[in-house]
Amino acid sequence: MNFKFAFCPIILLLSASLSFAQNVNVVIHGAASIAKTDDNFVCVTLDWWPAEKCDYNQCPWGKAGILNSDLRYGALINAIKAFNPLRIKVGGSLQDNMGCLSMERWDQLNRFFNHTGVKLTFGVNALFGRNESQTEKGLWIGDWQPQNTRDFMQYTISKGYKVDSYEFGNQLSGSGMGAKVDAKQYGKDVIVLKNLVKELYAHPETEPKVLGPGGFYEEKWFNTFLEVSGQGVFDGLTHHIYNLGPGDDPNMMNKVLDPSYLSQVSQTYKGVSDVVNKFRP
């Protein structure tokens, strides 16, 4: 199992701080490594947010979403190529309630991905077919219905488009973020997704990975869904963390540059690592 972390906001903030640069001496003790990362460690999300999405009296998305990005913009193309490769996740906050991706737009996106050498992770709508509970706010119940995903995969395969991985749902784990799914139910449904991938992708060497849950880490929830799904279903365990807080925090820069503050989340990473080691094949 692999971890995928996005630190693009840090890069942007550090770039913004160059105007306050100071001369410093940096000493690196390289006797031992503390972590290893994949070649495509950096990843970004191409989200569903529309141009009118606003937060903190700002409307930053503009035409930067899945449906309205200018895929011919030279600076964007060159920036993505420079990472060689960059992982892009198509999905995000609205992926579990959006269903308006036309195949014409999917064709355009894939021409863009092929041209720039992107490693693609596609976020699957994990609430499709479920109903919201009448007794517990935010809980979605019932079995996941895979037909929409089946149709999408069949079209994708027929066009020869390369998908590196499918991630099942977005922020549905534990207490969720507006919506959640019971851990046992999630474990059952991800087996359905894995079987669908195995059925439709005939050759193991081209078979996309199955990732999840792409949400906040809660030990009991993670342990439960992995006990239900069993070994050989998940290829990568993903989780989200927002330890820097909201984007309007006036102390954001200090947090980014403070190693002791950043280290406060080490126990979360240790918890995820322990779960991986417990359930890996």
Major sheet strand order: 1-2-3-6-8-9
On the 0-100 scale, what is the average pLDDT? 89
CATH H-level superfamily: Glycosidases
Main β-sheet, in a few words? 6 strands, parallel
Approximately what portion of the residues adopt beta-strand conformation?
A: 5-15%
**Helix percentage range:** 25-40%
Task: Give a count of the beta strands, DSSP E runs of length 2 or more.
Answer: 9
CA-atom Rg in angstroms: 20 Å
- What is the architecture at the second tier of CATH? Alpha-Beta Barrel
Low-confidence stretches: 1-18
Structural class by SSE content:
alpha/beta
Question: How are the SSEs ordered, and which strands pair?
Answer:
Layout: H1 8-16, E1 43-47, H2 74-83, E2 87-91, H3 103-116, E3 119-124, E4 131-132, E5 139-141, H4 147-158, E6 165-168, E7 180-181, H5 183-200, E8 209-215, H6 219-229, E9 236-239, H7 252-256, H8 259-262, H9 266-279
Parallel strand pairs: 1-2, 2-3, 3-6, 5-7, 6-8, 8-9
Antiparallel strand pairs: 4-5
Helix pairs in contact: 5-6, 6-9
Explained architecture:
The chain has 281 residues and is α/β, with parallel strands linked by helices. It has one domain (37-279): Glycosidases (TIM Barrel, Alpha-Beta Barrel). The protein has helices spanning 8-16, 74-83, 103-116, 147-158, 183-200, 219-229, 252-256, 259-262, 266-279; strands at 43-47, 87-91, 119-124, 131-132, 139-141, 165-168, 180-181, 209-215, 236-239. Strands 1-2-3-6-8-9 form a six-stranded parallel sheet, with helices on one face. Strands 4-5-7 form a three-stranded mixed sheet. Strand 8, helix 6 (219-229) and strand 9 (236-239) form a beta-alpha-beta unit. The longest helix has 18 residues, at 183-200. The chain is globular.
